[in-house]
Amino acid sequence: MATSRLPAAEFDAEEQLDAQHLPEFPRDPSGMVQMLSPDGELNSSGFRGYVPAEDELAALYRDMYLIRRFDQEATALQRQGELALWVPMRGQEAAQIGSARAMQDQDYAFPTYREHGVAVSRGVAHADLLKLFRGVTNGGWNPKDSNFHLYTLVLAAQCLHAVGYAMGMQRDQLAEPSLPKAATVAYFGDGASSEGDVHEAMVFAASFNAPAIFFCQNNHWAISVPTEVQSRVPLAYRAHGYGFPGIRVDGNDVLAVQAVTRWALDRARNGGGPVLIEAFTYRMSAHTTADDPTKYRLAAEEEQWVARDPLTRVEHRLRATGTGEHFFQQLEEEAVELAGNLRAAVLSMSAPGLEHRFAATYAEAHPLIQEELKAWKDYEAGFDIEGGDR
Amino acid sequence: MAVMTIAKAINEGLRAALGTHPRALLMGEDIGDLGGVYRVTEGLKAQFGPERVVDTPLAESGIIGTAIGLALRGYLPICEIQFDGFVFPGFNQITTQLAKMHARSDGLLSAPVVIRIPYGGGIGSVEHHSESPEALFAHTAGLRIITPSNPHDAYWMIQQAVTCADPVIVFEPKRRYWLKGEVDVSAVPTSPFQAEVLRVGTDATIVAYGPLVPVALAAANAAAEDGTSVEVIDLRSISPIDFDTVTDSVLKTGRLLVAHEAPTFGGIGGEIAARITERAFLSLEAPVTRVGGFHLPYPTARTEEHYLPDLDRILHSLDTVLAY
Ligand SMILES: Cc1ncc(C[n+]2csc(CCOP(=O)(O)OP(=O)(O)O)c2C)c(N)n1
After folding, report:
1. How far is CA A289 from CA A85, A350, B206, B264, in A?
2. Fewest CB within a 10 Å sphere: which of A49, A238, B55, B319?
3. Is the ipTM of this complex over 0.90?
4. Active site residue ranges of A
């Protein structure tokens, strides 16, 4: 019997594995793209062509400042029982404003549920963002108006929608080359990165070279579970396994986030395919208003991140380059007005009747819906006739 | 009128849909050069190209999830799930995302995705290749579920599914893929959500759908030899269910038997029994009876004949119903 043998003598499995040594899990933000240090120093970077001009910094600061105030106000509204739940975003302003400001009108964002900064940048009204949490709808805005999809509470599901939508953009572009080149951005968290849908989305995006950007906000915690439980390697590394670039960026540095996202979108729009961006950031407050972070993380960790606050470093830079007190005062006045308007809008929100649910479930007429609606209406009408209370 | 098998009729229906709707596309595993494991998509890639007939990565959630994205962008994706038992990796996308897109957006968005699933047993296959999971989907609002039992319906239903503004799951009775029948390609098709009275009778009604329709007809024929007149209804649509047609029949016959392959517990038969009891209680001469699968994982190929409702089991139940 003929035998063919592997060159066993030259093959040492342990040695081979050692050679692929896995990197240590970086707890610190080393090896990530950064342009504006926590002290407000500008660094050089490899994304020079995509860095916003220095005079745009004030506008980015304004966006971050206002969304922080919005977030505070929403938290207060929840505490007062006006919202069923709130999902705070404090600490993630740079990741959201930076990435959203990198998008063009024709691009399309698919969020999870914490992307309030992205939403507002895309043109969603502040009050509309609270409708879901107020409990008057499961949507709240028309995604087609803002190219910002509805929030998705099933983690990671939207990553596939983003890839499918990007595949559609790709087809539209082929059929109609005069259309503006477009891409999608899928937002998800470090916890969600463990879901199978993220894997499938990355496989599809790579296989079809879809113009889809995966924007992972690694805010270090999936409710109470740290990133280390989700992944043994920095999340950005995973992209290489799918065959596209993965970049870790300082998620608290609005300039770096914007530059990296602009680069990735530009590349995707021009046929370069997907990119995974891991924005290394931190959720500074609770997961939701129902969460108690003191049960699972140390105050020392939180303090460490206060020093990396995404707003402070921009403020340092603005002051160092001559922005006067007047700008900051005016911004605070604007924030107060925003909060007041928001409060009024929320208090006046009411839910449409159950008829609305019957009407919206199917696009075409449906006999079971009609039958049940009629039965329910007849039942309700009984109370009117009797005039009694319920 | 052309005579063709159900598989060929779906193939022709898909060809017509792809031809009529430039934004329709097929997505699935092995549907391109191979033409699907049941060859239902045979020749379509050659005709319409790889952009319209897409061999996807092997990922059911991926297929459904990206189809949702494409639909949001205005495309009309028609997904093939290779076998009934493999739809579950995509269950989340179907029930939590696809079914709810219209409702969650207050009607602003729709995702008219079509999902084709070959289903049911009787082909002597290994596990996860013979299941009938339709009730798991019927329980979810926002989906529509249809199932053809003959080539004519198969040809039209797939095209009607593509033009429906809601997501539609088409359960294809795989053991009937080779069943031949006439297809009238110039007919004006009836609504796919309407049941059809296939045989008129006066003593009892049998409701069946998909793979069991021929069995129900055979039972009615056998009963006729004994002098019993049985009405047979092909349900055609599992969600919504055309209760009006079933009710009218029961008001006349007074007896109802529902037959399906899926386990009876928590199944479509129970739903029909309950509704008909509400609607026709005073006309019923006997309790509504169900004939279906047992509360077991689908059995092995060599035991499935004891599990599947066959002519004898239906006739036995018919006797019970008629004995009241
Ligand atoms: C499929 C799914 N499983 C579980 C949950 C419950 N859940 C809500 S948020 C959350 C943690 C998410 O963490 P991460 O993805 O890191 O995002 P973050 O909330 O930190 O932004 C969990 C487990 C869910 N919403 N969806």
Report:
1. 6, 22, 55, 44
2. A49
3. yes
4. 283, 287, 296
- Interior CA angle at B79 toward B77 and B84, to 5°? 155
Q: What is the CA radius of gyration of chain A?
A: 24
- For the cut 80, the answer to whether the pLDDT of residue A4 exceeds it is no
In angstroms, the CA A183 to CA A175 distance is 16
Q: Round to whole Å and give the CA distance between B124 and B300.
A: 8
- Taking a C-beta distance cutoff of 8 angstroms, is the pair B26, B81 a contact? no
List Cα–Cα distances, A307 to A248, A281, A301, B72, in angstroms.
Answer: 20, 12, 11, 42
> Where residue A1 falls among pLDDT bands split at 50, 70, 90?
very low
pLDDT at A75 over 90: yes
**B28 contacts in A (CB within 8 Å)?**
none
In the predicted model, what is the mean pLDDT of residues A173-192? 97
Pair A20, A241: CB distance under 8 Å: no
B253-272 residue pLDDT tens? 999 999 999 999 999 999 99
Please indicate whether, in this complex, the C-beta atoms of A139 and B105 are within 8 angstroms of each other: yes
Q: Percent of chain B, pLDDT > 90?
A: 100
Q: Comparing B6 with A28, which gets the higher pLDDT?
A: B6
Any A CB within 8 A of B164 CB: yes
Q: Please, are residues A96 and A67 in contact by the beta-carbon 8 Å criterion?
A: yes
B129 is catalytic: yes
Band (A390; pLDDT cuts 50, 70, 90): very low
Confidence of residue B8 (pLDDT cuts 50, 70, 90): very high
Mutate to test the interface with A, among B55, B96, B106 (most CBs of A within 10 A): B106
Q: Which of A83, A188, A199 is nearest to A131 (CA)?
A: A83
Task: Specify the residue for token string 């079933």.
Answer: B246
Is residue B308 within 8 A of residue B122, CB to CB? The reply is: yes
pLDDT value, residue A21: 56
**Pairing of β A246-250 and β A225-226:** unpaired
Residues facing residue B116 across a β-bridge? B80, B170
Interfacial residues of A (vs B; Cβ cutoff 8 Å) = 137-139, 142-144, 149-150, 152, 154, 157, 159-169, 171-172, 184, 196-197, 200-201, 203-204, 207, 356-357, 359-364, 366-368
pLDDT-derived band at A8, boundaries 50, 70, 90: low
In the chain, the amino acid numbered B252 is K
* CA pair distance A74, A304, nearest whole angstrom: 25
Q: Are B117 and B170 in contact (CB under 8 A)?
A: yes
Q: DSSP string spanning B44-60?
A: HHHHH-TTTEEE--S-H
Q: Residue A178 pLDDT more than 60?
A: yes
Distance CA A158, CA A149 (A): 9
Query: What residues 14-73 of chain B have any CB closer than 8 A to a CB of chain A?
Result: 51, 56-57, 59, 61-62, 64-73
Residue identifier of the C-alpha nearest atom 11 of ligand 1: A222
B 141-160 near A (Cβ less than 8 A) = 141-142, 144
A132, A155, A160, A187: which to mutate for ligand 1, most atoms within 8 A of CB?
A155
Residue of B nearest to A202 (CA): B62
Average pLDDT estimate for A125-133: 97
